[in-house]
Write a structure and sequence with these properties.
single chain, seven-stranded parallel sheet, Rna Polymerase Sigma Factor, Chain: A, 18 helices, alpha/beta, 11 strands, four-stranded mixed sheet, 15% strand, Rossmann fold
């Protein structure tokens, strides 16, 4: 049976990996909508290739270029934030929510409210707006499938099991490029060094988050919303090989782990085919060639981000949204060589101490909290 699919963020890495899998099973999918920020020519090319009904650019200034590139194709073109929401609200059988940052919140919410299946790759949806989003999922009856490799691994390990039987959930972290560096070395770390992730090919911001361990802390907050077993049962372990993507320990002492290559097409395929399986072009694991798998506890003295994120999750309310916004400003400052690497976590902690708004009740509240937290962070940055 042919299913419909919309991909929000079609020209990014998640979108490209998703379309690669769809391309391999074209007879099983009909593409409803593809969106991008401003890559009009690439978006038009993809829309034509996959016969999309609609192509949307978030930046309205790019709409004339998109319309020109789609001329004569019969594919509708639109632009702007409202158009993104309208595309998500078309109610495809599956919507891949892969728009980066808070720009993806409203479209993700629109897709959830359709009550269909949403493959979630937008971190802010659950970090900044976790309570708001999960309440919408409960109201609409939507199915939320995690695309992130760690959360998808947990999802697979939990299949068919009751949360009441879970003793612990362990998120694995590569530790990033600086996992063996001293505090002195970390203080002198450069942006060029931080974005060279040893295992994954990622963008600059998420690569820095991996280097600081903020990425794993943010994933802990997401896991808290996705898998309600209690924060005390969520753990983090450093696993440099990035072969075991996460583990679930059960009350009988059994631990289930999901292993796979460092290729996002594996968790994306898990979502696309769920509850079945599908082929991917990924090479199978060769454990003999890998040789050994090692694990160690995270060092929260050198990398305090995970402790900050856990504290924000425990505080709840607006704290995770404030933390996320402050981290984005701090990472941008580091990438611009305006802030030392070791000051990223310090700055986030200071913003959390200075700004503690009431818990958000709706998406509009999340946007307001995010904007104010960024203002506070920028003001602090000027004092550095």
């Amino acid at each position: 049976m042919t299913r419909t699919i919309s991909i929000l963020g079609a020209t990014g890495s998640i979108g490209a990996s998703t379309l690669d899998l769809v391309r391999r099973e074209r007879d099983k999918w009909r593409v409803v909508a593809l969106t991008a920020n401003c890559q009009a020519q690439e978006l038009a090319r993809l829309a034509r290739e996959f016969g999309a009904e609609l192509a949307v650019v978030a930046d309205e200034a790019c709409l004339p270029g998109l319309r020109s590139a789609l001329a004569g194709s019969g594919i509708a073109a639109a632009g702007g934030a409202a158009a993104l929401v309208e595309a998500a609200a078309r109610g495809a059988d599956m919507t891949v929510a892969a728009i980066v940052g808070c720009a993806g919140l409203a479209p993700t919410m629109a897709a959830i409210e359709c009550g269909k299946t949403v493959a979630l790759a937008n971190k802010e949806a659950l970090v900044s707006a976790g309570d708001v989003m999960t309440a919408a999922v409960a109201r609409s009856g939507a199915v939320l499938l995690p695309v992130d490799s760690e959360h998808n691994a947990i999802f697979q390990c939990l299949a068919g099991n009751d949360y009441a039987h879970v003793r612990a959930i362990t998120l694995t972290a590569s530790g990033g490029p600086f996992r063996d560096w001293s505090l002195e070395q970390l203080h002198a770390a450069t942006p060029a060094q931080a974005i060279k992730h040893p295992n994954w090919d990622m963008g600059a911001k998420i690569s820095v988050d991996s280097a600081t361990m903020f990425n794993k802390g943010l994933e802990l907050i997401e896991a808290h919303h996705l898998f309600p077993v209690g924060l005390e049962k969520l753990r983090i372990v450093v696993h440099p090989q990035s072969v075991v993507h996460s583990m679930v320990e059960y009350r009988d002492g059994s631990t289930l782990a999901q292993l796979g290559p460092s290729d996002m097409r594996v968790p994306i395929a898990s979502c696309l085919a769920w509850p079945a399986r599908m082929d991917t072009p990924c090479a199978p694991l060769d454990l003999a060639a890998i040789g050994e798998l090692t694990f160690r506890a995270p060092d929260e003295v050198r990398f305090p981000a995970t402790a900050l994120c856990r504290a924000a999750a425990e505080a709840g309310g607006a704290a995770p949204a404030v933390l996320n916004a402050a981290n984005e400003i701090a990472v941008a400052a580091f990438l611009a060589s305006q802030l030392p690497f070791t000051r990223i976590a310090v700055m986030v902690e200071q913003v959390l101490a200075h700004y503690a708004p009431p818990a958000p009740a709706a998406l509009g509240d999340v946007f307001a909290i995010d904007a104010e937290a960024r203002r506070v962070a920028r003001d602090m940055l000027e004092l550095v």
